[in-house]
Amino acid sequence: MIALIAGAVDDRSARGIAAAVGRLVSAGSLPAGTRLPTVRDVARELGVSPTTVSEAWRSLARAGAIQTRGRSGTFVAMPGGPRQGWRYAQMGAHAVVSQDLSTGVPDHDLLPDLTDALKRLGDGRLTAGYLDAPVLPELEAVLRERWPFRPERLTVVDGALDALDRVIAAVVRFGDHVIVENPAFPPLLDLLQTVGATVIGVPMDSSGMRPDRLHGVLVEHPAVAVFLQPRAHNPTGASLTSVRAAALARVLKEFPSVTVVEDDHVGDIASAAPVSLGAHLPDRTVHVASFSKSHGPDLRLAAIGGPAGVVAAVADRRHLGPGWSSRLLQAVLLDLLTDPIAAAQVADAREAYAARRTALLTRLHDRGVTATAGDGINLWMAVDDQQIALVSLAAQGIAVAPGAPFCVTPIDSDHLRVTAGLVADGYDELADALASAAILDSRGSGPRTRQHPRGWR
């Protein structure tokens, strides 16, 4: 077995050893329950230090690929083993607060009313058999009309994170290099951790991921997938422009084995127009359209459209689990998407969120705070010290999300994510509290005026 491991390792760094062993596990060459050689034996065979192998083993354990059983040794884990250190768990409030702006959820009062849609469903039978198509034909027709490019196949799943989870399972294997925006959505990073992917963050600007930096990363680290948020990026609020999408597509055309996965999580409450790399790379772009923030989190619906090979793999695998997303909820979504009154309610919500972002952002800028909130429901605010800012706001009954879980690698300053979409009034008082927490005076406490604000890029 030690020869098998040594033969698979071509990069003798801790990351390279972990990736090589992970590929052996994924391929079944190291089946679940297999006892691995000792750290010292592997280190001796590879000609590296035991510390390097120990670090590789720790990475594999964090991803759930192996388990250490004390003196009994280290074993290849059974699928679905426990994992620790979720970034997602670090985002929410952990104390009773009067204003929770850490959640990233939409304002319930701005969601379209479901009452009439539920009444209009009637008692028609929506499911004839367990092997029915997973998407109601009428809903699929509407979704195809709305899609930013012509997808080969389309299916519906239980929300954007379910979509990302299932697409990752279809295209990513242990040790694969995967590229994301930096900062990125923490649950996406958690999902990639669970499959043992090697995640590389690419810096952003106000138009999205930077093409020059993407090219440099792809040259150095051949990747299997690039994950993007085309509109209302969480946490920064940036949206891809059509010019930026075309530039990213030109870069990716040089690397034909890379799949593009787009998470359009905000949907119809985004102010920016839909932009997709699928307009340039339709055979390699998987687009996820979520309806949680626009039409209701409890609908639990998102659509996946793109290459037939990926979408079919997702739909076929679901037949062995949930089978399909509730056709009752699909019928509700269909009604909401086609009802003029519901469409007007969503349009009103889009305008309300834009006004709330602008109101809070303007007041923060007036107080010398650097923040961005280009679109969506979140605001990304630079702070001098994340921990001090969190404690300061908590003392005032305000919860926000720390910026660290969003960062693949550190960026130029500490940040907080504030769900500005939940703030309907009291902007001056909130801005005072946020500014006081964000900017420390020269002694490390209290507000001051920042003369040269730092950006998030």
From TrEMBL:
GO molecular function: DNA binding; DNA-binding transcription factor activity; pyridoxal phosphate binding
Keywords per UniProt: DNA-binding, Pyridoxal phosphate, Transcription, Transcription regulation
PROSITE patterns: HTH_GNTR
One Pfam family of this chain: GntR
InterPro entries found in the cross-reference section: Aminotransferase_I/II_large, HTH_trans_reg/aminotransferase, PyrdxlP-dep_Trfase, PyrdxlP-dep_Trfase_major, Tscrpt_reg_HTH_GntR, WH-like_DNA-bd_sf, WH_DNA-bd_sf
Keyword Transcription: yes
HTH gntR-type domain location: 11-79
PANTHER family found in the cross-reference section: HTH-TYPE TRANSCRIPTIONAL REGULATORY PROTEIN GABR, TRANSCRIPTIONAL REGULATORY PROTEIN
Family: In the C-terminal section; belongs to the class-I pyridoxal-phosphate-dependent aminotransferase family.
The protein's name: GntR family transcriptional regulator
Species of origin: Paractinoplanes tereljensis
Lineage of source species: Bacteria, Bacillati, Actinomycetota, Actinomycetes, Micromonosporales
